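Structure in, sequence out. Go:
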């Protein structure tokens, strides 16, 4: 699997948040079709032709934002990001599109988008919020949000299009909001979305009625989805090998407290010698949230624990802080598309059982 991930390319340059550059390639092609010379625009944006044209080379997210602005100005298209996302072949988004396309239900697809988007654009994190509506919020990580309009409008438009294509229904969002402002709004965007788009809002977000998450995906393919999830998990793991010491310390503090139900932000902050507010600021500076780190740590630990045949599913649920085995099963299926028993049946037994060490660690918490 590792060799396959390496063969996919995904070469990043530098430490700035980077992106796969799909939007840059589509914008460049649009400009060329209009007879515009794109090389000077690339130079102004600080990107190379290789970064824009080679789908195996990443470019800095802030450079992509600037490149889109320059092309929009050259084309005199104030809705360039929207037009790109509205008109493109969604398969241009590659693995991210296919893992959504092969999911079972729309809610599953959106959770895949939440988990894997940052593999392909490190400057954007998707957060799902379930309540009165099912909302997908786009958060900028390590990139100045107000420098952008076209990229975020492309992302939101793409998500709405994908939801419609996967379900073969013209889904109408309950609401669509953007942080940036547009004087007079945008009737063209309103018409496409099927609702009045709110600019100058507090979040970049698209929300659907909660019942939409149970909508079946017409192209669902469980076998393909499981395969893609495995590949994307490997890619995600490779990206996270560069975790900073703060996150490592945080995870080391959380792990032994999980079985006792004490892995709360206030308790973790106390043990790290800081206030909950300081903890939240430290996490935000790295593009993280406490809930996100907790959820990802549970998912990673679950995969390790399932390799140990001496641990029952109920024991694993307890080790991860779930009071009910069914809650763990539901969470694991949300993370991977499989139940814990299905995942365990596909794994080879571990040569080094984790049970005694895990239980000892938990008892010390």
């Amino acid at each position: 699997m590792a060799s396959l991930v390496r063969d996919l390319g995904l070469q990043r340059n530098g430490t700035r948040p980077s992106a796969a550059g799909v939007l840059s390639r589509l914008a460049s092609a649009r400009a060329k079709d209009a007879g515009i010379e794109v090389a000077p625009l690339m130079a102004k944006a600080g990107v190379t032709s290789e970064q824009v044209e080679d789908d195996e080379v990443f470019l800095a997210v802030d450079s992509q934002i600037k490149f889109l602005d320059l092309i929009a100005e050259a084309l005199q298209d104030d809705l360039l990001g929207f037009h790109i996302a509205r008109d493109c072949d969604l398969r241009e988004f590659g693995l991210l599109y296919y893992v959504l396309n092969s999911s079972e239900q729309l809610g599953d697809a959106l959770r895949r988008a939440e988990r894997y988007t940052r593999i392909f654009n490190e400057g954007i994190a998707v957060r799902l919020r379930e309540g009165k509506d099912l909302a997908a919020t786009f958060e900028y990580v390590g990139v100045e949000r107000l420098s952008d309009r076209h990229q975020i409008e492309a992302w939101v438009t793409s998500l709405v299009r994908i939801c419609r294509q996967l379900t073969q229904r013209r889904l109408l969002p309950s609401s669509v909001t953007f942080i940036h402002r547009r004087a007079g709004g945008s009737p063209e965007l309103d018409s496409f979305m099927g609702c009045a788009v709110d600019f100058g809002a507090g979040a970049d977000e698209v929300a659907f009625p909660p019942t939409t998450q149970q909508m079946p995906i017409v192209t669902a393919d469980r076998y393909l989805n499981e395969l893609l999830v495995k590949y994307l998990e490997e890619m995600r793991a490779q990206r996270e090998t560069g975790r900073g010491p703060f996150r490592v310390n945080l995870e080391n503090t959380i792990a032994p407290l999980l079985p006792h139900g004490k892995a709360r932000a206030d308790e973790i902050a106390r043990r790290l010698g800081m206030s909950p507010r300081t903890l939240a600021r430290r996490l935000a500076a790295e593009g993280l949230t406490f809930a996100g780190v907790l959820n990802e740590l549970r998912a990673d630990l679950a995969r390790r624990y399932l390799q140990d045949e001496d641990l029952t599913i109920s024991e694993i649920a307890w080790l991860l802080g779930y009071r009910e085995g069914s809650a763990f099963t539901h969470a694991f299926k949300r993370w991977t598309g499989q139940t814990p028993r299905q995942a365990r049946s596909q794994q080879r037994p571990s040569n080094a059982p984790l049970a005694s060490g895990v239980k000892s660690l938990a008892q010390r918490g």
